[in-house]
Amino acid sequence: MNKISQIIGSSRKVVIKIGSNVLSSDNGTVNNTILHNIVEQANELMKLGKQVIIVSSGAGICGVGAINKWERRGDINYKQALCAIGQVELMMAYKNLFADYDLHVAQLLLTREDFNDNTRTLNIRNTLFTLIDEGVVPIINENDTVSVEEIKIGDNDALSALTANLWNADLLILLSDIDGLYDKDPKTNKDARLIEEIHGTERLNEQIDVRGKSPFGTGGISTKIEAARQVNAYGIPMVLLNGKKAGIILDVMRKKEAGTVFLGK
What is the pTM of this model? Predict the structure, then answer.
């Protein structure tokens, strides 16, 4: 049994982060086939007795898909308005898909300020534990409509790490559009080498090429390394998988060799 299979199999509390580039089609709208498959995998994990929290990007692209305008406007007001529109569409998609498995979902929109205030942090924890105890799937995203620079988390890799630490998760799974961490960008370098296990993230940015990010997302490889550093500091492993591949979480759990696991020192 490989390392990732062992970790997923033994983890009870799992945070799954879904990136915008996983959910988006080539035209920038939501790929419902991929989203349905991820929901199906989350349901299978829950049937195995695991608890699941989802941190989901995608409000912006859902906004573009809903009204088909403003996408070229760079003004922050339009970007926030798109997210406000798209968040409704995104949650409706999750609501309908999880309903197929008789599961309810709940929305939590958070900012960095929420994680820096002890009272808010306690309220978030209590809400999460209550939802999960009642079999409801929490769907977490950043509150983009109010997230100005002072309180902005920045990307959902960071948000998922904060969530995993707050919940004391057993595992953080990042679903991206790459097969794992490579020593260089595999999209432009055919000789890129997949790194299956990472023990410690110190100086990792100096050892691999971390440039580049998705046109639909705000993060990149460097934000994933930072997320790993944050959760590893709390003893939580992080797994990076290609979320565009159908059934990838369950396949890896069944011993398929794929992805990268960050284990800390």
Answer: 0.89
